[in-house]
Amino acid sequence: MRKTAFLALIVLIFSLSLNAFTLGDLGEFKFEKANDNVYIMHGPEEEPSKKNEGFMNNPALIESQNGLIVIDPGGNYNVGKKVLAEIEKVSKKPIIAIFNTHKHGDHWFANKSIKEKYPDVPIYALTYMIEQVKDNAADTWYGILDRLTGNLEGTKPFTFPSQGVENRQTVVVDGQTFIMRHYAKGHTDTDILIEHVNSNTLFIGDNLITNRFGAFDESSSIVENIKLLEKIKNQEDGFKKYTLYVPGHGPSSGEISKTIDPFLNYLNIIVAGAKKAYENDIPSYEIKSEVHEELKAYHSWDAYEGQMGKHLMKAYSEIEMLDF
């Protein structure tokens, strides 16, 4: 009898291993308990590619008494299926709500995988974000991710968020309280930061990224992103000390020095370099090598070579506009 039970256990473990969310030499990805009833799956810290199948964000899971709440389930239908399988390893409770932090498809295209199984699940996002993705932002990101990953099959038609929220709005789902925070510009103009009151967790979205770099598009502001991170760090404008800070990409932590500071310091160095170039009436590329030397701690971050110069140009243009 004992031998039979042991063999059954071995079969179960082997079965779970076969069904694990695995991305080649990038390893296995699963939800791990990060804070009270909060679980995070930390995605690969790199740009979207065929290798990572377009998965590189941090899906989050909050377990309530009667169900599960998901934040940013991932970047396509196929990834969403794998994320959903990992969710079901944490709990068999139904998914009762989804939150999307901003318009970029690498965070919300996987809505479709969850909605397929739970057709009545409400999906929350900033009202303006919903307008943007229904206009052209979804198609723009579909084109980007399809070109880079080749893994968008099944993602269309898009599953858009269905419930618009606004700045400072409180949303309660099965006893779990979430406070929305929106600023006109930061990583994009459609971001919500989500404070989960029950666990004292702050989900910052792509306003905070660690170990990799992404683009700042036309709707973003490096200067305003800095102001936002400083407000979080200094506990201003209603922010407080949180037990856990969750970035859109990169490791989560309860320590400011490990979460907020690295990206904030990077942005401050970029802006300082851009200001110096502007004040000396020289183009940003002429100061790039000097800024590069100041950014030695970031040379190993994914996409540094491709993004740093663009960030410097973006900061320069913002400083120029502020001068007018």
TrEMBL record:
For this UniProt entry, which residues form the secretion signal?
Answer: 1-20
The source's superkingdom equals Bacteria
InterPro entries assigned: Metallo-B-lactamas (IPR001279), RibonucZ/Hydroxyglut_hydro (IPR036866), Sec-metab_biosynth-thioest (IPR050662)
Any one Pfam family match given in the protein's UniProt record, by short name = Lactamase_B
Q: What keywords tag this UniProt record?
A: Signal
Q: Where is the Metallo-beta-lactamase domain?
A: 56-249
Gene3D superfamilies in the record, alphabetically?
Ribonuclease Z/Hydroxyacylglutathione hydrolase-like
This chain belongs to which protein, by name?
Answer: MBL fold metallo-hydrolase
**Organism of provenance:** Sulfurimonas xiamenensis
